[in-house]
Amino acid sequence: MITEIGLPNTESRPRRLEILSDESIYYVDYCREFLGRYVPDSREFTEWPLPGGGSSRPYGTALDLSENIWIAESGLDPNRLVGFNTSTEEFFSIIEIPSGGGTIRHMYYHSTTKEIWFGTDTNNIGRATITPCVLLFTYCILKV
């Protein structure tokens, strides 16, 4: 059986999904430049505008062990990786992709090395190393 759940805005175009341990589902809205959350139990939606604004065009996502969501803002030149803390509901890290990125469509968090791997439309694969930020109690990208 397949069930489809309509998003709150008919202009939304979700690209990637991440599911947290509490079973909430996060999505990036490519057309509206938002990060969204759907909570199946309550059927509630919450959305946050991305830091890149009306040009962010979010595409690839990755979920780390602390349940931070990493988002590729692919509409900006250069592309940027943006971190979102799902506990505080705040964006906390923004870093530019050295090659520009073109478009980052897929990202993968490798928990053993605490790295995010991604592919770009500029003929590169990228690796972002993240480590705990003691003062923020979350993660920051150290290098790409």
CATH architecture: 7 Propeller
How are helices and strands ordered from N to C? EEEEEEEEEEEE
The CATH homologous superfamily is named YVTN repeat-like/Quinoprotein amine dehydrogenase
> Termini distance?
41 Å
Order of the strands making up the biggest sheet: 1-2-3-4
Instruction: Output the number of helix runs.
Output: 0
Q: List the uncertain runs.
A: 134-140
Query: What about the largest sheet?
Result: 4 strands, antiparallel
Evaluate the radius of gyration: 15 Å
**Proportion of residues in extended strands:** over 45%
CATH fold group: Methylamine Dehydrogenase, Chain H
Number of strands: 12
From the spread of the alpha carbons, the general shape counts as globular
Helix content: under 10%
Number of domains: 1
Highest CATH level, the class: Mainly Beta
Mean pLDDT: 90
Structural class: mainly beta
Q: Brief overview, please?
A:
0% of the residues lie in helices and 50% in strands. By secondary structure, the protein is an all-beta fold.
Describe this structure in words.
The protein is an all-beta fold. It has a single domain, classed as Methylamine Dehydrogenase, Chain H (7 Propeller), CATH 2.130.10. It has no helices and twelve strands. It has strands spanning 14-19, 25-29, 34-39, 44-49, 58-63, 68-73, 80-85, 90-96, 107-110, 115-119, 125-133, 138-143. The strands form three sheets. The protein has a four-stranded antiparallel sheet, with no helix packed on it. Strands 5-6-7-8 form a four-stranded antiparallel sheet, with no helix packed on it. A four-stranded antiparallel sheet has the order 9-10-11-12, with no helix packed on it. The chain is globular and about 40 Å long.
